[in-house]
Amino acid sequence: MDNALRRGGGRRLRCAPVITRLSHLFLRTLRDDPADAEVPSHKLLVRAGYVRRIAPGVYSWLPLGLKVLRKIEDVVREEMNGIGAQEISLPALLPRDPYETTNRWTEYGDALFRLQDRKGADYLLGPTHEELFALTVKGEYNSYKDLPVALYQIQTKYRDEERPRAGILRGREFIMKDSYSFDLDEDGLKASYNAHREAYQRIFDRLGVKYVIVAATSGAMGGSASEEFLADSPVGEDTYVICRESGYAANVEAVITPAPEAQPIEGRPEAVVHDTPHTPTIATLVEWANAAGIAEQYGRPVTAADTLKNVMVKLRHPDGKTEIVGIGIPGDREVDDKRLGASIEPAEVELLTEADFAANPFLVKGYIGPKALQENGIRYLVDPRVVTGTSWITGADSEGKHVVGLLAGRDFTPDGTIEAAEVRDGDPSPDGRGTLVSARGIEIGHIFQLGYKYTDAFEVDVLGENGKPVRLIMGSYGVGISRMVAVIAEQQHDEKGLRWPAEIAPFDVHVVIANKDEAARAGAEDVVSGLHARGMDVLFDDRTASPGVKFKDAELLGMPWVLVIGRGWAEGKVELRNRFTGEAEEIPADSAVETVVAKIRG
Ligand code: ATP
Ligand code: MG
Fold it and tell me: Which reaction(s) does the protein catalyse, per the Swiss-Prot or TrEMBL entry (predicted)?
């Protein structure tokens, strides 16, 4: 198929758009960056007149921005239809009831926009639609023969984000493609999930986005119950780690620490308690060890990695009960709160209070060791590096005392391992094929094997093949459509302006008249008509402004090709500029239309 047709040009040929003249286009470009803008995409999209701010996290789409948005929607729509998903559209204004049933009316907290109608009934503006899709399927289907089904919508969502940010990147009103799959069993769910995963890869590849797929939670390792698509970007709010050698990527929370080999215990020296006055910190302890001759025993200087740091936390379990837990991690690492939080979910972490220490006098601050914890029935969880036979310098449970040579598996037996220590650049990749480095990304998509949470809540059953009811199993999948406009602008710009990939550029080509000469003007009109007749979507700068102003605008607006009809016209030449490479070439005016069409169709 001809490229233009494949890119949605078919519609164009049937109903070619009118030629868009800059003299008439509803557009004002701005010379200065908006005062509230920090990231390049925000500055450029506002300066280039794509979007305008109405309130924090609430934006209007002007003609150029709306064209990009619609093109992204079209790509997403094509790929969703391609996997057999069917488009529907649910309201954004929703009654409270279904969200009460799943407890999300409360759980969503301050991020939910809640409102009341004139009769005092509660409503919300939908932040995501699992409830309503589950109810919709329940309402229509009642036989296993109807399944599987995948439904989607491209619709406006509302979230009262704590920090709306970077223009349309994190809005309070934004557009999402959300889809939901319903299957009879887990294998069906996996198939629906994989179809979405592949469709998302095709979408982001077509949009020219650089991205990685990361396991969202550690439960997802191998099984992949939830994955996020993160676009590479220094302004991203998500940190993830990547192994450049193998391509492994994961959210920091999902990284599983490779455990070293266990070591023999036979014949290892006894643990010895030492007086170590004034060594409540890892740094002071290491200094003591090197000064006290421990380094000689080790045959090398002692480092913080030889020490075992015992961090006390209080867990609040969902039933409201609290539990004090000890976490042992190598002394050269800090606890990463996000990793700890993900590991102990659904419990929550609290800090110990002075009262907790007073109630548990065996907890000697700065000198806590595994022994007292275990003797007093406190659960002791260790970093996966603390395997049997590893030797540690750690607290001896009394003021000013540490123990050297404490062997895991001999002198203490942990109650389990926990992923709580920070992940650092240079750590080995869990796949054993290189090392990890950290990177930043923007979440552009999320795919999630939800399971039965919503179908249980609403009892979404169909009659099975054997006449018994079957509860449906559900997946949910989101793409940030409006966010994608900002993400592409973020990845594809230079100091002069935007730089759209052809698939979603508002126009195929931007034609600039850079000459007052009447013949050139008339010639430009002919070239533009020629391009239009060939199905090209043309932005025509027919204004009387100076060439300098027009060139600057062309760079700011970011169409992939700029055709300049200027001084060379008299000699039968025009200039074709590639916004992507910055290259310019002179081409004969009489074959300009053919040359440009050929370039655009690649
Ligand atoms: P984030 O971590 O960025 O807040 P999320 O985990 O809340 O995202 P989901 O609920 O999975 O996101 O929503 C699906 C997709 O919708 C996200 O991958 C993202 O692309 C987009 N999205 C989410 N929140 C916003 C927002 N406030 N503004 C624009 N797009 C958003
Ligand atoms: Mg969010």
Answer: tRNA(Pro) + L-proline + ATP = L-prolyl-tRNA(Pro) + AMP + diphosphate
Read off the pLDDT band of 17 (50, 70, 90). low
CB within 8 A of 26, min separation 6: which ones?
62, 63
pLDDT at 345: 83
For residue 16, name the pLDDT band (cuts at 50, 70, 90): low
Q: How far apart are CA 549 and CA 527, in angstroms?
A: 22
- Confidence at residue 222, expressed as pLDDT on a 0 to 100 scale: 37
Mean pLDDT, to the nearest integer, of 130-135? 97
- State how far the alpha carbon of 372 is from the alpha carbons of 361, 392, 412, in Å: 10, 16, 10
Q: Which residues, in sequence order, are bridge partners of residue 584?
A: 577
Question: Counting beta carbons within 10 angstroms of the beta carbon of residue 320, is it exposed (0 to 12), middle (13 to 18) or buried (19 or more)?
Answer: exposed
Residue 95 CA, ligand 1 centroid: distance in Å: 22
Q: Report how far residue 586's alpha carbon sits from residue 327's, in angstroms, rounded to the nearest whole number.
A: 69
- Asked if residues 550 and 577 have their Cβ atoms less than 8 Å apart, the reply is no
- pLDDT of amino acid 36: 86
Gap between the Cα atoms of 508 and 505, Å rounded = 7
Q: Is the pLDDT of residue 361 over 80?
A: yes
Please give the Cα distance from 134 to 411 (Å, whole number).
Answer: 54
In tens, the pLDDT along 281-313 reads: 999 999 999 998 888 888 899 999 999 999 999
Q: Determine if ligand 1 sits within 6 Å of the CB of residue 174.
A: yes
Nearest CA to 104 out of 79, 82, 122 is that of 122
Prior bond of 148 cis (ω within 30°): yes
Distance CA 595, CA 536 (A): 12
Which of 405, 418, 259, 390 lies closest to 329 in space, CA to CA?
A: 418
pTM for the full predicted model: 0.82
Residue 336 — φ and ψ, nearest 5°?
-95, 115
Using the mean position of ligand 2's atoms as its centre, give its distance from the Cα of residue 57 in Å. 13
Distance (angstroms) between ligand 1 centre and the Cα of 593 equals 42
Compute the distance from residue 61 Cα to the ligand 1 centre, in Å.
19
User: What is the predicted pLDDT for the residue at 225?
Assistant: 83
Question: What number of residues does the chain have?
Answer: 602
- Provide the angle, in degrees to the nearest 10, between the axes of the packed helices 40-47 and 481-491: 100
Burial class (CB in 10 A: 0-12, 13-18, 19+), 540: buried
Q: Ligand 1 pocket test: which of 203, 238, 446, 479 has the largest number of ligand atoms within 8 Å of its C-beta?
A: 446
Q: For tokens 């060939």, what's the residue?
A: 534
Burial annotation 572-582 (CB, 10 A radius, 16+ → b, else e): ebbbbbebeee
Ordered domains of the chain (ranges, CATH): 34-91+128-255+438-490 (3.30.930.10), 272-417 (3.90.960.10), 507-601 (3.40.50.800)
CA 143 and chain centroid, separation: 37
What's the angle, vertex CA 45, arms to CA 39 and CA 51, rounded to 5? 125
The string of pLDDT tens digits covering residues 443-479 is 999 999 999 999 999 999 999 999 999 999 999 999 9
443 lines ligand 1 (CB under 6 A): yes
The H or E element containing residue 231 is strand 226-232
Atom of ligand 1 nearest to the CA of 176: 16
Q: Residues 146, 148, 154, 158: is their CA dihedral positive or negative? A: positive
Predicted confidence at residue 217, as pLDDT, reads 67
